[in-house]
Write a structure and sequence with these properties.
The protein is an alpha+beta fold. The protein is built from three helices and twelve strands, in the order E-E-E-E-E-E-E-E-E-H-H-E-E-E-H. The model has no long low-confidence stretch (mean pLDDT about 80).
């Protein structure tokens, strides 16, 4: 059972993208290190920073492609769900679909931005020399997980002000079973890896 809120730290200057996740009691929950220059994404999510205790795997279903589906599974290969960007990458809005393990065609949840304008300004100002270093204190996107076109919101991910790293907070707003929670958190992690160049 995850203890919320969860704290995500995304190392800013690491050669390979890395995310550490701790819970409300400061216990280490997940560690993700994305390998660079892989044509077909395969990521192992670990329970520890030493990468000795695998928790889940994330595998793309095709070579680099904006429409790739990312399949989530336990270490023994049991599928628990998947995640896919809806449409092409957009400066204006990020929109992702989350699927259960039994029906890969019908999304059970979506991820959307609470206010797309925040990301637009964050992206534009981050390109300005020197000024770009401080956008993390001013423009902080918020992402929501909810059922397609419906309330309630199940989880909320918000960027919190930070200078030398990107920090995020995941709050649980409605109840879900343990496996569904894991799929939601993995979807947020994968979304951050895909959206990292836009803050």
């Amino acid at each position: 059972m995850l203890q919320y809120p969860l704290n995500l730290t995304f190392k800013f200057f690491a050669l390979s993208p890395q995310i550490s996740v701790t819970d409300a009691t400061d216990n280490f929950i997940f560690y993700v290190k994305q390998k660079s220059f892989r044509l077909k994404e395969v990521i192992t999510v670990f329970h520890d920073q030493e990468r000795q205790n695998p928790a889940f795997t994330i595998k793309a279903d095709r070579i680099i492609d904006f429409s790739a589906r990312y399949n989530f599974a336990r270490p023994d290969g049991e599928p628990i769900g998947s995640f896919k960007r809806r449409g092409l990458r957009s400066l204006w809005r990020a929109h992702y679909d989350i699927f259960g393990p039994d029906d890969p065609d019908t999304p059970i949840f979506t991820i959307r931005e609470e206010n797309p304008w925040v990301k637009v300004w964050d992206t534009l100002f981050s390109e300005i020399p020197i000024v770009g270093f401080f956008t993390g204190y001013v423009f902080n996107p918020v992402y929501l997980i909810q059922q397609p076109e419906q309330e309630p919101v199940f989880m909320r991910l918000e960027k919190i002000p930070a200078f030398l790293s990107r920090k995020f907070l995941i709050k649980q707003l409605d109840k879900a079973d343990d496996q569904t929670q894991s799929v939601m958190v993995l979807s947020f992690l994968m979304m951050l890896l895909l959206e990292r160049s836009r803050g």
